[in-house]
Amino acid sequence: MQSDAIFLSLLVFLPALGALALAFFPKDKPDALKMGALAVTAATFALSAWMLCPGDPAVDGVQFRAGVDTLQNAFSVDWIPSFNIFYFMGLDGISFPLVMLTTFLSMLSMAASWPIQKHVKAYCILFLLLETGMIGVFLALDFFLFYVFWEVMLLPMYFLIGVWGGPRREYAAIKFFLYTLLGSVLMLVAILMLYFNSDVRALNDEQLTATRVVTASPPATDGAPSPVARIRDSQQPVHTFNIMALTQLGQKTAQFDKPALFGKSIQWWAFVLLFIGFAVKVPSVPVHTWLPDAHVEAPTPISMILAGVLLKMGGYGILRICYPICPDAAYDLRWVVCTVGVVSMVYGAFAALAQKDFKRLVAYSSVSHMGYVVLGLGVWSATAGTEYNPNYWSMGWNGAMFQMIAHGVSSAGMFFMVGVVYDRVHHRNLDDFGGLFARMPVYSGLAYVIFFAGLGLPGLCGFIGEVFVTLSVWNFSHTLAVISAAVVILTAAYILWTLQRVYLGPEYKGPHGEHLHDIDAREMGIAVPLVALAILFGVNPQLIFKYMTPTIDAYVGDLATWTKEVKTPSLQQTIVPTEPKLPLLIEPRAADDRPVPATGTRTPERTVQVAPPPTAVALAEAADAPVRPRTPSHAH
Fold first, then answer.
1. pTM attached to this predicted model
2. What is the distance between the alpha carbons of residues 417 and 424, in angstroms, rounded to a whole number?
3. Alpha carbon 60 to chain centroid distance?
């Protein structure tokens, strides 16, 4: 555990330490500052890549194993014990690919920051602080710690847009800040709702250890009670911010099913608040309007980070937090989630078709592509109608996760390609472009691969996730599947039309045409890795699936089991006919009128055993039988 704590802490805070070191650099040496920041991002990427190296985790300590569905490199240390807040971090198949994507794109984005000339020292420091916040979000497994890292990202991104952005940078930065702050406030309310309604005393000893609420340790020799004993002996509820423990409480107990406003449960409102907060970051329609302005005004490297990493945090939050902790609400609102995803896909594609600004077009394409992520997560097809088969839903989650990684590569590449041209001609008007293939052949060839990856061309990274999501939706709704498949046509329309207007067509007729020289070595060093990954992930998607699929299958399998053992019986209970009634098996009670523990998925506090639903023959016989007064049993 000690090596895990040191390694993951270094991975998170190395950029922050680099920012602290840059604070002592002289500000009149911009190239040295940029080189220092680039070295820090490269070292952070090297640390994350070290986990990919073959080795025995029991010996080497930090290697991430493919094909494992449990937490790896996890550790938990007391942080604010009075409120049960822990410095709890770890990796699994969901977070590990996103951490790798974050460190990789941060390195490339820093390399793309060479055109930045104003306040270089402040830019590099804020950039490195932003990277610390992004990595921390994907590693944090304590809800309080997660929220801290989530907020750490807000101010650096606000200043990076507001100071180094375009002509309307103040407006875009404030809009980004307000939208993100709104999502953060809603998320905070949901966190507090879950925290104050949680009680880990409902978990058994094995669950307490598996979720790291307590750590497995030898018995104390001084007679002090063990951590489990202290929890069991507590006379007051033991609240927790532990995301893994909240997941167990949400699926194995009824603690979050208490009624709240308007007859809806605690978890229903928590899911709604969390989903809105994460949808702002995705972003999904209708809370997407901050994104085009932020992208258009942000400098190129910040647009790469914004599209490649920050948007993925919304999908990650829905996958990691919303569904596992609030399954009952997620089941009830599954059609809402899928509708939001489909509307975002269609709206983003049509909006992209209408754009005249090159960068705004790419921004709206992100809204459309991230709609696939929301749709893939929402297709709760493991129901009684499919005999609780989780395969198609698992395909949707795997497709959504793969789409996040693929979109991180393709969108960062598309924004970089737009930035290469903008640095030369200082405009993005699509109507003034044309004929760039003849002037910049190497650049244009690389751009074609990146844009085709965004289009979803087979053999490139964008194809796999979109196909998996569309196939998974078919088992949920044929209508939504047809719409999601048709969006590919709209995507092809705006991508191909853009390529025709910019790279083919008539001669360039905009300003500064004399500066349209081909891509240089620095720009080549950024574009080629992105193109290589777009091809590699499209040809061999198993490179990603082997890490993420076991964890996702375990998550979906748990939710499918919950649907079968908890949700379906509760639905059957609500539709049992009231007249005539068949007797229910009454929950046994002890002498002091406390419920006696019963076998079931839920804890005893809401375990109700329901008789099997009556057959058609039984109902018919009961309806025809004369009504007789019920004779008390003691009369006999």
1. 0.87
2. 12
3. 29
